[in-house]
Design goal:
Distance between the termini: 26 Å
Keywords: Magnesium, Metal-binding
Cofactor: Mg(2+)
Order of helices and strands: EEEEEHHEHEHHEHEHEHEHEHEEE
Pfam family, one: MR_MLE_C
Radius of gyration: 21 Å
Strand content: 15-25%
Number of helices: 10
CATH architecture of the largest domain: Alpha-Beta Barrel
InterPro entries: Enolase-like_C_sf, Enolase-like_N, Enolase_C-like, Mandel_Rmase/mucon_lact_enz_CS, Mandelate_racemase_C, RHMD-like
Protein name: Mandelate racemase/muconate lactonizing enzyme C-terminal domain-containing protein
Structural class: alpha/beta
């Protein structure tokens, strides 16, 4: 069946809940991230009874879309084609793929594997919050417990938040703790990929000291150590001296053209524009332009991990994605999100 046979008959919203495996603590800038919450999803239905749903990119007015032919809003080959419908990017991709009886990743081209490597994005500064061995002078029992919980959930790779000295600890003590947590993770999980994320909380010299202290830990990437300043990224690239550590950037309020240019210059190895903030249609345009790998930022909702997995399996060039540790939105097996061949994003409304 083709999209031309379908007309939009209704666009409604539904409020859904989500939860993490645990209460997630601080990063270098922000306080506790909580234990879950709720979000609004949009449900789009056609006059032939087809339904798709998903997260919106932003607030939007669905009124003008009612009665419109679906084929005027989304092209399976390109994505959303009408600016008035852009806020429904994910619901429309879900709807179109369901009508075509394809998983979204197949509609995107199937350039990658439906078994997508996925790291835990949930190792925050929980060593600073609660318990008998916590606070600025504590050890890392909370980190040890969080790593074990995420490993039991199915993750095999871990992203560690670093930058404790930016806001929460004395800079020297914070740097020591960052190093301690990194070395602990490598000791406990010798085969894991270790990714680290500074949330723009580092100075150049502080980052160099950290990198040198964990040089034997085999970091997979360094994410957002500081804002995307070309001279600092050039200095970091020189300091890494051609080694295997990737530089990942472009998550926070990105100038996408700037990130694409930095990637072309070899200063960004992994582009991180958010899976919702940038959008699936925009990623379909951006990916062919990148002279780097991609890994769309997915923190916040477990559903975003599912979206990132379809993007990886569909567009390729995304060797690893961010996993939000929480049940219900995706299937995780031995460190990989495993996508089915069910139509759309393969997830029914709860």
């Amino acid at each position: 069946m083709t999209l031309t046979k379908h007309t939009i008959s209704s666009v409604t919203t539904v409020r859904l809940g989500y939860e993490y495996l645990r209460t997630v603590g601080r990063n270098s800038f922000l306080g506790s991230h909580g234990s879950g919450g709720s979000f609004t999803a949009y449900v789009v239905e056609t006059d032939r009874g087809a339904t798709g749903w998903g997260l919106p990119l932003s607030d939007g007015d669905p009124g003008p879309l009612i009665g419109r032919p679906l084929a005027e809003l989304i092209d399976p080959e390109r994505g959303v084609v009408d600016p008035a419908a852009e806020f429904l990017d994910y619901p429309l991709h879900d709807l179109a793929a369901r009508i075509l009886e394809l998983p979204v990743y197949a509609m995107l081209g199937g350039a990658g594997s439906p078994r997508v490597r996925c790291y835990s994005g949930g190792i925050y500064f929980d060593d600073l919050d609660g318990g008998p061995d916590s606070g600025p002078d504590s050890g890392s029992d909370a980190i040890r417990a969080n790593l074990a919980q995420d490993h039991a959930f199915g993750f095999r790779d871990f992203k560690l938040k670093i930058g404790r000295g930016h806001r929460w600890m004395d800079p020297r003590a914070g740097l020591r703790r960052d190093i301690e947590v990194t070395r602990l993770t490598r000791e406990l999980y010798p085969d894991a990929a270790i990714l680290v994320d500074g949330n723009d909380g580092f100075t150049l010299n502080g980052l160099f000291e950290y990198v040198d202290a964990v040089a034997d830990c085999g970091l997979y990437w360094i994410e957002e150590p500081f804002p995307e300043r070309r001279p600092d990224l050039q200095a970091l690239r020189e300091h890494l001296d051609g080694g295997p550590i990737r530089i990942a950037d472009g998550e926070y309020d990105p100038d996408v053209d700037h990130v694409v240019a930095l990637a072309a210059e070899g200063l960004v190895d992994v582009a991180l524009m958010d899976v919702i903030g940038h959008g699936l249609t925009a990623w379909r345009r951006t990916m062919p332009l990148l002279k780097s790998e991609a890994s769309p930022h997915a923190w916040g909702l477990p559903l975003k991990t599912l979206y990132a997995a379809h993007l990886s399996a569909g567009l390729g060039n995304t060797p690893i994605i961010e996993g939000v540790p929480g049940p219900g939105a995706y299937t995780l097996e031995d460190g990989h999100v495993v996508l089915t061949d069910d139509p759309g994003f393969g997830l029914e409304l709860p």
